[in-house]
Amino acid sequence: MKGTEPKHWLDSPKNVDRIWYWLLGLCVLLLLTDALYHKHTHFWFENWFGFYGLYGFVVFFLVVLAGKQLRKLLMRGEDYYDR
Fold it and tell me: Does a structural domain hold residue 79?
């Protein structure tokens, strides 16, 4: 039969939901491990529970926003190489 492709395991929304919940559970587990060790910090705010995870999330979010703005500055037209 032409045009029929084999079904992959990520084609099922149920499997995508499973991956999402496993990833969310792993993130929560890693956040909870923050309470299990003593941190040798330089600044007072580094002692906050979950500081490094929150810091990483916020900085990555800002990098994505900066990239969107940088794209506007650096983007070339569709016919840039056709000229």
Answer: no
